[in-house]
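input
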Amino acid sequence: MLLLLKRLGHLAAGALLMAALPGFGGEAVSTDLRSYLADVLQAHPDLKAADARVAAAEAQAENLSRPVYNPELGVGSEHGQSQSLEASLSQTFDLSGKREARRASGQAELAIAVAERTEQRQRIATDVLKALADLYGQIAASSLAEQRLELLERFAEVADRQYQAGDIGVLDRDLAALARAEAIAVTGRVELNLLKAQQALDAATRHPGYPPPPLPDQLPESGLLNADYNALAAALPGVRAALAKTEAARAEIAIARSETRSDPTVGVRGGFQENRGGGAGGSLVGLELTIPLSLRNNFQAPVAAADARPPAAGTPSHAPYRLAVARMKAAATQYGRTHTAWMRWNGLSSARIDASVELLDKVWRVREISTAEYLVQFRQLLDGRAAGAELRAQTWASWAEWLDASGRWQAWLDAAATSDSLNPTASSGK
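output
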């Protein structure tokens, strides 16, 4: 039994708890986190759809940047007392700013599509990181639950033998059996949670069965939270998208107003005329200017409709900025606290807990404590192990929340690739 207790301590403290999940052994998790996320993002169907939206916005922006009016070529003839043939060329000139307003609208819509795609990439990447943290937390819990069950089954067997020998009473034997039954129930519940965590990762990656990489052994230092939150908020894709929507709304107003202004058309005509009565003919040259009159429709209704939209489209552009700063501060506080708690827990050496478990077994065998006392203290020790694994998973989830709030996930991974570590000290997020 002491050998099993030692195994429990080493398994719980190690970084290889992922082996408890079938099919996720050492070779299956050799892909590092950066390349794993790159592969997930490249194959993710939502991002492929976002790429298509960006391509459509690029084509639309190119179309809207072109001139509004094309030249017109006309040919005409007249047959009567005289016969004439003429050709004309006319061009409408954009003096109302239609092209510039349309170009601004296309660029704003393109900026929205690009920012939303970047935001979606960030959200998917951080969702995957959170799912990985939860998965490995559940793997650790599953490993501990299996070890708890193995130990309590062995304990129940020893207690039964001692009861048969008359060393303990029926109450102690029943307590050991109940502890084993509880461990069976806990193991089943943990296995269900593990299955749900795997399903959540599959849903985040949209790639079921794709072997996940191990999380780094070391958690990122809390000093990485030191950054200019205002600058980070201004660079967030969600904030950029909100500002682009404001610009798009202004462009729509400009387009509507340009439609209320008429653009002149200038044309030139040339040809020849021949009199059937035998008179002298001659060439014809003409100049034409036409200006549409906005009598039946002054196009003011679209302007009123566009003017009614800016409060809905423009005013909230400041709200995402303020919310982003507040969210970053909250995420930084959360990670700082969980990281501090994890460091304090990790400072309590695993060997100290192992020694306590071994000592507990010894004092129970020499009858210095009762079976009930043994089970209470044994549960507390194992719960301490489980709490440490859960705290580590929560700390990683808090880090993912910070990366999502600050938009620094790609910079973190790039710094990791440069330093061959996912704990960069050179990048502070500024």
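quick obs: The first strand starts at residue 72 and ends at 79.
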